């Protein structure tokens, strides 16, 4: 039963926003559920836990209270979002031209576990985001130059927050991955400071921050061309067994 304090909507993830084949990109679905938990407010970070892969083209239940949200399929909990007071650490700024040059070292060209991924997959320009993080010489960072497609806006011409969360997501994995290695996003915590705009150019920067068994940890950020911070995130990935 839905209480008076709870809102419930039915959502379906279009196949375009896939990560692994058959399921949603982790960052995109995390951003979608995050926005349901806090609306347009950006006064705190939001922690999103992915409990199970989110299926595509399937009716799902999105429930949101004042400060939290869940996504379920029947009785199965898929995604949960809650605000947190933690201040996130952003990897340092990499200028756009330098970030774009780093793309030549993108490990996914030699071996990509999810070549159809909306964010980092080898999709046609305008269809996917084509964010290809590669190593930045002389640093522990990976970076990519993000050219925001005009085709990712909503009906009002705004780039949805889910797209920004998606951009923050995959780079934290590629900070770890070698060709042929794979993992799935388990948790993404992000703080959005400002919007991104269609046709804009941004630097996506990430670094690996540790590993514990199958858990891989990373942090990422999106910057405007002048170094203004747009958003930052930290991620936990679960490596394939």
Q: Would you write up a description of this structure?
A:
This is Thioesterase family protein. InterPro entries: HotDog_dom_sf. It comes from Streptosporangium saharense. This protein is of the alpha+beta class. The protein has 2 domains: 7-84, Hotdog Thioesterase (Thiol Ester Dehydrase, Chain A), CATH 3.10.129; 96-239, Hotdog Thioesterase (Thiol Ester Dehydrase, Chain A, Roll). 14% of the residues lie in helices and 34% in strands. The protein has 3 helices and 11 strands; from the N terminus they run E-H-E-E-E-E-H-E-E-H-E-E-E-E. The chain has helices at 26-38, 96-102, 161-174; strands spanning 7-11, 45-50, 60-64, 69-73, 76-84, 134-135, 141-147, 183-192, 201-212, 215-224, 229-239. Strands 1-3-4-5-2-8-11-10-9-7-6 form an 11-stranded antiparallel beta sheet. Strand 10 and strand 11 (229-239) form a beta hairpin. Helix 1 (26-38) crosses helix 3. The protein is globular and about 50 Å long. The model has no long low-confidence stretch (mean pLDDT 93).
The helicity comes to 10-25%
Number of domains: 2
So how many helices? 3
Beta content comes to 25-35%
Low-confidence stretches: none
Q: Radius of gyration, rounded? A: 17 Å
CATH fold field value of the largest domain: Thiol Ester Dehydrase, Chain A
CATH architecture of the largest domain: Roll
Per CATH, the superfamily of the largest domain is Hotdog Thioesterase
Average per-residue pLDDT, rounded, comes to 93
H/E element sequence: EHEEEEHEEHEEEE
- How is the main sheet built? 11 strands, antiparallel
Judged by helices, strands and strand pairing, the structural class is alpha+beta
Distance between the termini: 39 Å
The main sheet orders its strands as 1-3-4-5-2-8-11-10-9-7-6
Secondary structure: number of strands: 11
Shape: globular
CATH class assignment of the largest domain: Alpha Beta
């Amino acid at each position: 039963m839905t209480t008076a304090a709870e809102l419930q909507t039915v959502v379906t993830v279009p196949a375009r926003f896939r990560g692994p084949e058959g399921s949603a990109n982790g960052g995109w679905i995390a951003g979608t559920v995050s926005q349901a938990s806090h609306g347009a407010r950006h006064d705190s970070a939001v922690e999103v836990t992915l409990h199970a892969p989110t299926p595509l083209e399937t009716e799902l239940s999105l429930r949101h209270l004042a400060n939290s949200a869940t996504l379920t399929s029947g009785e199965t909990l898929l995604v949960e979002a809650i605000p947190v007071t933690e201040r996130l650490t952003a990897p340092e700024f990499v200028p756009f031209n330098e970030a774009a040059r780093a793309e030549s070292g993108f490990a996914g060209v030699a071996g990509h576990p999810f070549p159809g991924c909306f964010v980092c997959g080898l999709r046609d320009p305008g269809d996917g985001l084509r964010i290809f993080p590669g190593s930045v010489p002389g640093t522990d960072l990976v970076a990519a130059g993000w050219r925001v497609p005009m085709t990712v806006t909503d009906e009002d011409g705004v780039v949805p927050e889910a797209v920004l969360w998606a951009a923050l997501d995959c780079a934290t994995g590629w900070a770890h991955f070698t060709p042929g290695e794979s993992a799935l996003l388990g948790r993404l915590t992000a703080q959005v400071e400002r919007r991104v705009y269609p046709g804009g150019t941004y630097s996506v920067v990430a670094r690996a921050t540790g590993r514990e068994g199958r858990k891989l940890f990373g942090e990422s950020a999106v910057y405007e061309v002048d170094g203004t911070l747009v958003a930052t995130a930290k991620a936990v990935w679960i490596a394939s067994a």
